[in-house]
Amino acid sequence: MADLTRSAGMANLLNSEAAINMQTAARQNMENRVFGTEAYFDRRRINREARQADRRPQASPDDLARFARARAPSRLSVSELDPFTGQIVWPSILQQEIYAEYREGLESLFAERAISGHLDMQQRTDIRQLTNEMQQTLKSRIRDYPPQEYMQTRTFIEGLGAELLGSAS
Hints:
The protein is an all-alpha fold. It has 2 domains: about 1-55; about 75-160. The protein is about 70% helix and about 0% strand.
């Protein structure tokens, strides 16, 4: 009978130790999960900070406006487009016969602008269309012209288009 009592006591002791071990294991498991979660979010934060440090600073609205103005084509000078008569002094490339139709249309529109002092919507559309077509024709013949002359001519055509931004002369 003593063995039975001792065995029952040992069973209770071992069951108690097992319960303690189970609780300890459960606590350690929870701590490990918390540690793993913290480590995950720490890695994300470190990664975000590193990427942010590598990024260029975002441009302010003033910077964006300044960049847009710098990239916008310049209007033509008075020696290229006379604001009082609408007379256009064409670069040599654009004096070729292939560009005659565009020249005539643009000369007529800018002469009308010089007389009336403004462009209506249809005239603006016509100028935009003629300059776009002229530029496409120029681009299709890019291999026919020296690079510097091509770029100067392209800039000239862009300048004609920029006249739409400040059409009242």
